[in-house]
Amino acid sequence: MTGTERDPDGAVIAKRADSGAPDTGEIRDLARAAGYRVAGEVTQTRKEDPALCLGEGKVDELARLVRRTEAAAVVFDNRLGPYQTYNLGTRLPDGVEVLDRFRLILDIFGQRARTRKAQLQVELAELRYELPRVEAKVSLARRDERPGFMGLGEYDESRERDIKSRISRIREELSQIERDEEDRRERRRESGFDLVALAGYTNAGKSTLLRQLAADLDVDENEGLHPDLDTTAESRDRLFTTLGTTTRRADMDRRDVLVTDTVGFISDLPHWLVESFKSTLDAVYRADLVLLVVDVSEPIEDIREKVVTSHDTLYERNEAPIVTVLNKVDRVPEEDVEEKAAALSALAPYPVAVSGTEGTGVEDLLDRIDRELPPYEHERLVLPMSDETMSLVSWIHDNANVNDVDYGEQVVVDFEARPVVVEKSRARANDLPAVAES
Ligand SMILES: Nc1nc2c(ncn2[C@@H]2O[C@H](COP(=O)(O)OP(=O)(O)OP(=O)(O)O)[C@@H](O)[C@H]2O)c(=O)[nH]1
Ligand SMILES: [Mg+2]
Q: Any residues with CB less than 8 A from the CB of 352 and at least 6 apart, and which?
């Protein structure tokens, strides 16, 4: 049978576990997120076979299942080395693609990448995935010395060089993007915004929650101020719906807060893959506060694992305090939410319970955000009456909560704002001609 006669959407799942029954729930969801129809599965509990991952007999079973279902792909939940991928390919019908968990995640990311940054990140991750495989092919080709294979080997050696130089060019372009984004975050802070980021396992409900937190009416006004603010944050019951970042202004009376939604976390990601998405995750790492969103409707063991994965992903770089948000409370009886919160108390103290779809608990969450962010400072400036002063007063109105402005011989402005805004207004006041300060 040739590749063209196979069902192009069909995939057979394969998974090996060292001990216990292999759980294929997540890899099935991932396969579906990539657009496959799951045609069947083969699992095995045993030590890793260095050549084939699974045992010989299991691989024969896998090949029979692939033949019967006419699936075009085999998706392993395990990490496959280059040699294992190659060997498995020789045991399966011609034209069947062998993917491991990371290759599959890369395919999903590739399908979702819309922005220049996302496309570069996907390409970087793909090249970093491909590099050791090309190196393996080169050495296999040398060893095999099959006619025709040597030519391929030479081709692959130049491919190896191309990959390396492309990787360094992409890295340069991405670090420029990172610098631009860092500048933008600083500008936003200087103009009085606190930056809050939504983080959490994929499908926890981050994008849904963003819509609840955001001030819909403000979006248009926002767009003029910050042309990069998006108005949409798609939600779907599918893994990795969100790949880039979406930032919106939160609906808060006392503060100006920007909330950023971003790519979800997943377990067992190799370091290089997380690294490739660093500039997207910077929105989380460099926030003033992180909301770690958890799907509380899942079994407690799954929740615990996902919280641990999220903490691991945040751990090295995150600089901000973390508030855990137990989402989807509408799907769970109240007692269960309390029980799960108690079971998680060591990992996630004082969580806030919400429903992103129904809006329950969202007010509590906004209050909590207000309390966790650095407190506003109070300031009272006495300024001379002049045109420059008028423009400073209007800047203070834009960036602070003004309690009172008194226009007499002098102008007295009483306000509260983020410390950086207070500092900046003092500096600007000092630059005014003949300023008096109380
Ligand atoms: N019942 C219920 N479903 C919810 C709630 N919040 C989100 N969902 C559903 O959960 C699914 C995932 O929601 P998203 O908001 O896309 O999740 P996400 O964390 O942004 O996911 P990724 O972008 O894939 O990382 C969607 O089908 C939502 O409708 C909730 O509070 N209750
Ligand atoms: Mg999302």
A: 323, 324, 325, 326, 361, 364, 365, 368
E strands within 1-119? 7-17, 37-45, 71-76, 97-99
Which amino acid, one-letter code, is at 26?
E
* Residue 14 CA to ligand 2 centre (angstroms): 27
* Mean pLDDT split into 10-residue runs, the chain, 438 residues: 72 97 96 96 97 97 97 96 91 95 92 87 91 79 58 68 94 93 90 92 93 64 40 75 84 87 86 80 91 97 94 82 96 96 94 96 95 93 92 92 92 93 93 64
Q: From the alpha carbon of 329, which atom of ligand 1 is closest?
A: 31
pLDDT at 366: 95
Q: In angstroms, what is the span from residue 393 Cα to ligand 2's centroid?
A: 39
Instruction: Label residues 73-109 b or e (16+ Cβ within 10 Å = b).
Output: bbbbbbebbbebbbbbeebbbeebbbbbbbbbbbbbb
User: 180 near 164, Cβ under 8 Å?
Assistant: no
Output the pLDDT for position 63: 98
Is 203 a pocket residue for ligand 1 (Cβ < 6 Å)? Answer: yes
* Minimum-distance ligand 1 atom for the alpha carbon of 200: 19
Confidence (pLDDT) at 229 = 42
Give the closest residue (by CA) to ligand 1 atom 30.
328
Q: Is-contact 257 373, C-beta < 8 A? A: yes
Q: What is the pLDDT of residue 224?
A: 38
For position 315, what pLDDT does the model report?
A: 79
Model pLDDT, residue 71: 97
**Which domains, ranges and CATH numbers included, belong to the chain?**
3-99 (3.40.50.11060), 189-372 (3.40.50.300), 377-431 (3.30.70)
| Cα gap 374→57, rounded to integer Å | 61
Closest by alpha carbon to 396, among 373, 377, 371, 375? Answer: 377
Judging by beta carbons within 10 Å of its beta carbon (0-12, 13-18, 19+), is residue 119 exposed, middle or buried?
A: middle
CB atoms inside a 10 Å sphere around CB 427:
9
Q: Tokens at residue 81, please?
A: 């080395």
Residue 241 CA to ligand 2 centre (angstroms):
5
Distance CA 99, CA 13 (A): 10
- Strand ranges inside 228-302, DSSP E: 246-249, 256-261, 289-295
Confidence (pTM) = 0.84
